[in-house]
Amino acid sequence: MSVLTFAYLIGGFILLVIGAEVLVRGAARLAARFGISPLIIGLTVVAFGTSAPEMAVSTQSAFLGQGDIAIGNVIGSNIFNVLFILGLSAVITPLIVSRQLVRLDVPIMIAAGLLAWFLAMDGSYSRLDGLILFACIIAYTGYLIISSLRAWKPGQSTDSDDEYSAQINPHRLAPLINALYILAGLALLVVGSNLLVSGAVSLAQALGLSELVIGLTIIAVGTSLPELATSLIAAWKGERDIAVGNIVGSNLFNLLAVLGLAGLVSPESIAVARGAIEFDFPVMIAVMIACLPVFFAGYRINRWEGALFLGYYIAYTAYLIMQSNGDSFASTFADAMLGYVVPLTAITLFVIAARAWRIQRGLPLNN
To answer: Above 80 in pLDDT, residue 133?
Structure first.
């Protein structure tokens, strides 16, 4: 394994993070300059910016015919977002979950995961599949913007108003400068994704790992760095609802926009590995479904639940590594997790959610 491989990986990660940050700053300032609502900026520009690394890597991989990296990046990022980022954020401080998130956005996220899994069942993502997924993110974003505009009242001020209004530069060359920011951000994303994909392929070959495993682990973690930074900082500052909303929004964008665009730009249908269909997709969907009882139980994520999420991510990653190395213990480990640990956790979460439901409706707990 050469030093150049690590240089490509580290350089790619750094350029992706910087590119996403520069892109968001330039786009937000340019939008604010032309009077676009800060609320709409937050729903569109910022949501796109934090998921821009995933989109750059998956699109580049699909275009180069490396479908395992494109698919693994999306699935791995979504699992990492929920289990690791939410788990670590909740360990730092218990997180608040809005009722809208539980009643609307999380069910939509689960439905998007099921749709992506269903479209992959035939073993590939065609351009039609990509078009279906991308049309869904356009419809969802349009719904968010329209409903937010209806709920917004003239003169109403939000935290994002102060944030984005402060970014407006009165200088007459400001629009040109912000446009250059956007172009620079896009350029950094393209170069960073090229380096990261090249380094990941070399690493997979050197370690004897499949590109799918590399996409599910190393690349997924690297492209999720913006979400990790955003949620951890939000949790640390006490903006606990933002920490959760950022993850749900990012997962939706990954499933619909990133997979959709990858399917659209790929010269041929993207092959989906049988292992991803039979194991990784179900794990991702199970993780997202697990959010419902956790979120519903008091509309918060407690520290012990965050620690549980972290433990599951460590177990999932350990299984991937053991399986890829042909370790005979991998099947025993999977049987133990699926036969005992996961069912016990599911029962526990169900009981907690049922108890919270009864409390909210004033029902006695001993019936």
So the answer is: yes
